[in-house]
């Protein structure tokens, strides 16, 4: 049985949870270049939007990151 590709894992996650962040991809799947895989999926025809999200990290510093969503 072949191991799923990073794109396969991200697409399955998006179908299940509707969104993913870089931290989600790293913690759950060990994927460090989420934006590159999102580009691949968009290139394959999937409608994925991105939104800049700002939150505070564990040190109280504001950080901005992308949240990717699979469009219906």
Can you tell me about this structure?
This protein has 3 helices and 3 strands. The chain is of the alpha+beta class and 72 residues long. Strands 1-3-2 form a 3-stranded antiparallel beta sheet. The longest helix has 12 residues, at 6-17. The model has no long low-confidence stretch (mean pLDDT 96).
Summarize this structure briefly.
This protein is α+β, with helices and mostly antiparallel strands and 72 residues long.
- Helices and strands, in order, run as HEHHEE
Largest beta-sheet details:
3 strands, antiparallel
Q: Which residue ranges are poorly predicted, with pLDDT under 50 across at least 5 consecutive positions?
A: none
- Strands across the major sheet, in which order? 1-3-2
The pLDDT mean sits at: 96
Alpha-carbon Rg, integer: 13 Å
Q: Estimate the helix proportion, in percent.
A: 40-55%
Q: Find the structural class using helix and strand composition.
A: alpha+beta
């Amino acid at each position: 049985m072949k191991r799923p590709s990073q794109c396969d894992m991200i697409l399955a996650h998006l179908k299940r949870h509707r969104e993913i962040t870089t931290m989600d991809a790293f913690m759950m799947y060990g994927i460090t270049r989420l934006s590159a895989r999102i580009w691949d999926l968009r290139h394959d025809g999937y409608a994925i939007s991105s939104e800049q999200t700002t939150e505070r990290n564990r040190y109280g510093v504001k950080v901005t990151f992308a949240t990717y969503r699979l469009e219906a």
